[in-house]
Amino acid sequence: MKHLYVMIVLAAMLAGSGGAFAAQKKDDVAHVKKDVADHRAMADAHLNAAKCLEAGTPENDCQAQLAKDCKGLGIGKYCGMKHKH
Description:
This protein is mainly alpha-helical. It has helices at 2-54, 59-70. The model has no long low-confidence stretch (mean pLDDT 80).
């Protein structure tokens, strides 16, 4: 009888952890989707900065726009990227 009780408790624990695993997986998927969106936004900001420089706009103006476009996305004012000049 004790073995049956132990088996029931173990089965209940496993069933509960399966639900937690599913919730964790959904959180992981949401995190990955946000990470992808952030990377795309950073890439767009850098592409716009390159186009700005190609158009002959002064570098300081392009850097200022890049800082605005990247606000809240990357580390530092250059979206986590700074080239050596």
